[in-house]
UniProtKB/TrEMBL annotation:
The gene is rimM. GO terms for biological process: ribosomal small subunit biogenesis; rRNA processing. NCBIfam families: 16S_RimM. One of its GO terms (cellular component) is ribosome. An accessory protein needed during the final step in the assembly of 30S ribosomal subunit, possibly for assembly of the head region. Essential for efficient processing of 16S rRNA. May be needed both before and after RbfA during the maturation of 16S rRNA. It has affinity for free ribosomal 30S subunits but not for 70S ribosomes. It is found in: Cytoplasm. It comes from Alteromonas alba. This is Ribosome maturation factor RimM. Residues 95-168 form the PRC-barrel domain. GO terms for molecular function: ribosome binding. HAMAP family: Ribosome_mat_RimM (MF_00014). Residues 9-87 form the RimM N-terminal domain. The PRC barrel domain binds ribosomal protein uS19.
Length: 173
């Protein structure tokens, strides 16, 4: 992986839970409990934390981190992003890609028209979408485009080496 030293945000510390240092966890992993497969966590305070215990709590999850022993300690880390080293992420197959790898890739139509550069990837519930910042002299006057990231019907190829996404897309849309 070329960006092995990068940090990847996998969740966020939520509100304190109780008085013994437990906190609610907002997981960004596909399966919420999957966040506990990664350790240590690097929080936005630039410190590493180990998980002592965790458990489901209704539809949420709560955790106790080592050295977070009081409600005041939990309040101190509230709302901090949970990051890990990117090298901890599993290797993907040739036809799979992490969202973070898409940022900065060129987007080109199957007819060769340069649509721009990926600035963001997000999920709408129905499918993933890439926000593409159009090139400055876009012939269609577009500043940005929102393109569904759906393989076969829209996205034809993702070339990780050349950093180019080829799409079947009307440049005027």
């Amino acid at each position: 992986m070329s960006q092995a030293s990068d940090k990847v945000v996998i969740g966020k510390i939520g509100a304190p839970y109780g008085v013994k240092g437990w906190v609610k966890i907002n997981s960004f992993t596909e399966v919420p409990e999957g966040i506990f497969d990664y350790s240590p966590w690097l929080l936005a305070d630039e410190k590493e934390y180990q998980i002592d215990q965790w458990r489901p709590h209704g539809k949420a999850i709560v955790a106790k981190l080592i050295d977070i022993d009081s409600r005041d300690d939990a309040e101190r880390i509230k709302n901090l992003d949970i990051s890990i080293d990117a090298e901890q992420l599993p290797e993907l197959g040739d036809d799979e890609v992490y969202w973070r790898e898409l940022n900065g890739m060129q987007v080109v139509t199957t007819q060769g028209y340069q649509l721009g550069v990926v600035k963001e990837v997000f999920n709408t519930g129905a499918n993933d979408v890439i926000r593409v910042k159009a090139k400055a002299n876009d012939a269609f006057g577009q500043k940005e485009r929102l393109i569904p990231f759906v393989f076969d019907s829209v996205v034809q190829t993702v070339d990780k080496t050349e950093r180019v996404i080829t799409v079947e897309w009307d440049p005027g849309f």
